[in-house]
Specification:
This protein is an all-alpha fold. It has 14 helices and no strands.
Length: 241
């Protein structure tokens, strides 16, 4: 089917009030895909889908208010639409809103709000939110510092294969934060993350093989992991080669 035919079909569905079609046409106007790029029309179509309750359109509308895309920039409206979307319970949207609050990206920075939305998303099993929630507990941002709680959420993310969480568990075992220090366990977790190309974990594993901590001392393996870490852009590892 031609792009023109696709556009005609979408336009017909838009006329019939189909929210997904309104969202699709809004995206087409935003990107200029198969149609002339038009921020104002993108905003109007996205708004129609958002008012029909489509969560991702509500989030997109929040972004448009935040960035001033097709509409006058308005942080209050941005927050309103972000939160409408997040309150529908989609874990990814809740996580995204948490990152916006944590970074102050287009809305006022608020660690407490960030934790609130990370928690909602993490409770649904969304690994990136579990990881970020762990980081907030580890640093004491928006919550009281709690290494044990941080480790709990890292384990949940790591169980889903989230490599950065695996690396951080290794670090907590190595430093004894939130758990009894155990170099063997640290090396095991670093290896999981290193096998997923986390450069910091590869560096840590290189050091442990060099010093014989948690693993049998093995200079060749140490150099192997330092080399992999260096190849992944971690400068301290390059200095060890």
């Amino acid at each position: 089917m031609s792009a023109m035919a696709d556009l005609g079909k979408v336009s017909t569905l838009v006329s019939n009030g189909v929210a997904t079609a309104q969202a699709t046409l809004g995206h087409m106007y935003l990107t200029g895909e198969g149609i002339g790029q038009d921020d104002v029309k993108a905003f109007e179509r996205t708004k129609e889908a958002a008012y029909r309750g489509r969560a991702f359109s509500q989030y997109a509308l929040g972004e448009m208010y935040s960035n001033g895309t097709g509409v006058r920039q308005n942080d209050t409206k941005a927050i309103e639409w972000y939160e409408k979307a997040a309150k529908q319970g989609n874990a990814e949207i809740q996580y995204n809103l948490g990152t916006l609050y944590q970074n102050g990206d287009g809305i006022p920075q608020d660690d407490h709000k960030a934790v609130e939305w990370y928690q909602k998303s993490a409770d649904k099993g969304f690994a990136p939110a579990q990881y970020n929630l762990a980081a907030m507990y580890y640093e004491g941002q928006g919550v009281s510092q709690d290494y044990v709680e941080a480790l709990k959420w890292l384990r949940k993310a790591a169980a889903q294969g989230y490599a950065s969480a695996q690396n951080n568990i290794g670090d907590m075992y190595e430093t004894g934060k939130g758990i009894e220090r155990n170099d063997t366990k640290a090396a095991e977790w670093y290896l999981k993350a290193a096998n997923q190309e986390i450069a910091e974990a590869q560096n840590s594993l290189g050091l442990m093989y060099f010093e014989g901590r948690g693993v049998k001392q093995h200079k060749a393996k140490s150099q192997e992991w330092y080399s992999k870490s260096c190849d992944n852009g971690y400068e301290p590892s390059c200095d060890e080669l």
